[in-house]
């Protein structure tokens, strides 16, 4: 099967772009928006609705493989590409990129994905969001051509064993939405609430607000979920633990220890406790914190995110044993082939793999991500798109369930 033509449309992502540098500068919130001027290049407001671009590969038999180009909420910081603007990229996608794709055979994924991921236009590689969506579309087209699921394509080409069960999901909740939290506890995901903190005031003096939040969450889990439900508690701090204690590793470790006590029997996952100005400093700080936690006998999993964007970054963090897990934030890696390889590298080198992404993704990028998860088998995955919880959990669980059942029935009849 070959690609007959390339069609693109601009649409909506599942969330927003938010200027993280502006948040860190202490701007005042006004409901969901903020008073003040943006500080990160590419932003026109501190909070902006974000674009997505659907790339549709029309095959010569009329079938359509498609993927969605989208980036992360906090675009343009910690070494990331700038915010994606949909209409600005259409001429190039439907021109140079389409010219490279039309007439190409789509019987296999890996080689064509690598080619597009490394494609240079006007002296630069394509924006990571474009590489992300283009390679999704290629994977979908290859699956249609071979009449198999995308997970089966990946397992065959990367020589992996498909998971036979759904991958655990870390469900994201808004920080102050008690009703949403109760809904998620009722649905009993493996990990929750993946709540985020971007301001030290949310933590309280010496972290007291944080500890009270964790105690309340643990009690709600017990009250609603029952004694048999023991999810891991996942919190994303965007560096504010380090900010609260002016980078004092011992004090950060002490608060994390108190947090594990507040969580009771529930395991604790701590993402981005510190945020440094360079990758080297980030790795050094995370390693020091892990060492301090081990010495204190504190059992909490540390997740690296910032400064760990590309597949080369992930390899470096794994080689340096910077954390217990790395978040493989899929839009940041560009081609989905890189996300597949990143999970496999982590597993081969003793690093925990959190196959994540962004609330800013779409339904299609999320569905395709589930196939990558089933074929690569990370430790857990992040919920997406959006921060509503219910919708993301539905899309992800159902896509994995459908895929697993199709594969099981096919193997039964073989």
From TrEMBL:
<feature type="domain" description="Methylaspartate ammonia-lyase N-terminal">
    <location>
        <begin position="1"/>
        <end position="159"/>
    </location>
</feature>
<dbReference type="GO" id="GO:0050096">
    <property type="term" value="F:methylaspartate ammonia-lyase activity"/>
</dbReference>
<feature type="site" description="Transition state stabilizer">
    <location>
        <position position="194"/>
    </location>
</feature>
<dbReference type="InterPro" id="IPR036849">
    <property type="entry name" value="Enolase-like_C_sf"/>
</dbReference>
<dbReference type="InterPro" id="IPR022665">
    <property type="entry name" value="MeAsp_NH4-lyase_N"/>
</dbReference>
<comment type="similarity">
    <text>Belongs to the methylaspartate ammonia-lyase family.</text>
</comment>
<keyword id="KW-0479">Metal-binding</keyword>
<dbReference type="InterPro" id="IPR022662">
    <property type="entry name" value="MeAsp_NH4-lyase_C"/>
</dbReference>
<dbReference type="InterPro" id="IPR006395">
    <property type="entry name" value="Me_Asp_am_lyase"/>
</dbReference>
<comment type="subunit">
    <text>Homodimer.</text>
</comment>
<dbReference type="GO" id="GO:0046872">
    <property type="term" value="F:metal ion binding"/>
</dbReference>
<dbReference type="Pfam" id="PF07476">
    <property type="entry name" value="MAAL_C"/>
</dbReference>
<feature type="binding site">
    <location>
        <position position="305"/>
    </location>
    <ligand>
        <name>Mg(2+)</name>
    </ligand>
</feature>
<keyword id="KW-0460">Magnesium</keyword>
<keyword id="KW-0456">Lyase</keyword>
<feature type="domain" description="Methylaspartate ammonia-lyase C-terminal">
    <location>
        <begin position="162"/>
        <end position="408"/>
    </location>
</feature>
<comment type="pathway">
    <text>Amino-acid degradation; L-glutamate degradation via mesaconate pathway; acetate and pyruvate from L-glutamate: step 2/4.</text>
</comment>
<dbReference type="InterPro" id="IPR029017">
    <property type="entry name" value="Enolase-like_N"/>
</dbReference>
<feature type="binding site">
    <location>
        <position position="271"/>
    </location>
    <ligand>
        <name>Mg(2+)</name>
    </ligand>
</feature>
<dbReference type="Pfam" id="PF05034">
    <property type="entry name" value="MAAL_N"/>
</dbReference>
<feature type="binding site">
    <location>
        <position position="236"/>
    </location>
    <ligand>
        <name>Mg(2+)</name>
    </ligand>
</feature>
<protein>
    <recommendedName>
        <fullName>methylaspartate ammonia-lyase</fullName>
        <ecNumber>4.3.1.2</ecNumber>
    </recommendedName>
</protein>
<dbReference type="GO" id="GO:0019553">
    <property type="term" value="P:L-glutamate catabolic process via L-citramalate"/>
</dbReference>
<feature type="active site" description="Proton acceptor">
    <location>
        <position position="329"/>
    </location>
</feature>
């Amino acid at each position: 099967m070959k690609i007959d033509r390339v069609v693109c449309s601009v649409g909506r992502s599942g969330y927003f772009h938010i200027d993280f540098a502006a948040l860190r500068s202490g701007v005042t919130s006004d409901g969901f928006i903020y008073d003040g001027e943006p500080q990160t290049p590419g932003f026109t407001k501190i909070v902006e609705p974000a674009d997505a671009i659907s790339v549709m590969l029309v095959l010569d038999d009329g079938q359509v493989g498609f993927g969605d180009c989208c980036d992360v909420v906090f675009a343009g910081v910690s070494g990331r590409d700038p915010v994606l603007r949909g209409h600005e990229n259409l001429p190039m996608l439907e021109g140079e990129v389409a010219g490279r794709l039309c007439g190409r055979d789509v019987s296999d994924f890996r080689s064509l994905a690598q080619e597009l991921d490394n494609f240079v236009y006007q002296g630069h590689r394509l924006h990571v969001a474009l590489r992300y969506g283009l390679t999704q579309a290629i994977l979908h087209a290859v699956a249609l051509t071979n009449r198999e699921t995308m997970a089966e394509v990946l397992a065959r080409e990367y020589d992996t064993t498909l998971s036979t069960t759904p991958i655990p999901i870390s469900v994201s909740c808004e920080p102050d939405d008690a009703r949403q939290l109760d809904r998620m506890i009722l649905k009993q995901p493996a990990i929750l609430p993946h709540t985020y903190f971007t301001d030290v005031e949310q933590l309280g003096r010496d972290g007291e607000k944080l500890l009270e939040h964790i105690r309340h969450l643990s009690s709600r889990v017990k009250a609603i979920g029952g004694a048999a439900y023991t999810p891991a508690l996942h919190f994303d701090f965007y560096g504010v633990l380090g900010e609260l204690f002016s980078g004092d590793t011992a004090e950060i470790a002490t608060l994390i220890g108190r947090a594990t006590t507040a969580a009771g029997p529930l395991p604790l996952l701590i993402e981005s406790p510190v945020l440094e100005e360079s990758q080297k400093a980030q790795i050094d700080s995370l390693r020091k914190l892990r060492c301090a936690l081990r010495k204190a006998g504190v059992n909490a999993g540390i997740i690296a995110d910032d400064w760990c964007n590309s597949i080369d970054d992930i390899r470096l963090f794994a080689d340096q044993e910077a954390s217990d897990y790395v978040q493989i934030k899929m839009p940041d890696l560009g081609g989905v082939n890189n996300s597949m390889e990143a999970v496999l590298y982590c597993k081969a080198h003793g690093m925990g793999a959190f196959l994540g992404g962004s609330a800013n993704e779409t339904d299609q990028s999320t569905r395709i991500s589930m196939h990558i998860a089933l074929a690569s088998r990370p430790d857990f995955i992040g919920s997406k798109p959006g921060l509503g919880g219910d919708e993301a959990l539905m899309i992800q669980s159902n896509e994995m369930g459908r895929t697993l059942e199709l594969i099981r029935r096919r193997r039964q009849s073989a």
